[in-house]
Design a protein that fits this description.
This protein has five helices and no strands. The chain is an all-alpha fold. The chain has a domain at 97-124.
């Protein structure tokens, strides 16, 4: 953009700002105008009292219930043996190589490296 375009845009924005400021009400007049009453009326008060009574009733009811019986240790045991249904997706070809540290010079390691599928990779 050239300098004349920038000046033209700046003049247009300044004129628009002056027009907007002329339309906006004075801040002091906004503060001085009367506000509508904020009363809730009798229906609003009844709703507030009913909500408070409901909250108090629920709190008292929850404290008066007998405590829940202790759970058996079955849930903790079942969580330790649980397996995700998608665990099989993590078993990729060659994942046996990552299941234990390598033993260099062993025959099994050499076979696994030459045939990642193990016995399946051998030709009969």
């Amino acid at each position: 953009m050239s300098g004349s375009d920038d000046d033209r845009i700046e003049r247009a924005l300044s004129e628009q700002r002056r027009l907007d400021e002329g339309l906006a009400p004075d801040f002091r007049s906004l503060l001085a105008r009367p506000r509508p009453p904020a009363s809730r009326g009798p229906a609003g008060r009844i709703l507030v009292v009913a909500a408070l009574l409901l909250v108090i009733g629920v709190a008292l009811w929850s404290r008066s219930r007998p405590p829940a019986p202790p759970r058996s240790g079955m849930a903790a045991g079942s969580l330790t043996t649980w397996r995700a249904p998608t665990d099989f997706l993590l078993e990729t070809p060659g994942s046996r190589l990552w299941s234990s540290p390598p033993v260099f010079g062993s025959v099994e390691a050499e076979k696994a490296l030459s045939h990642p599928e193990g016995e399946k990779g051998k030709k009969s």
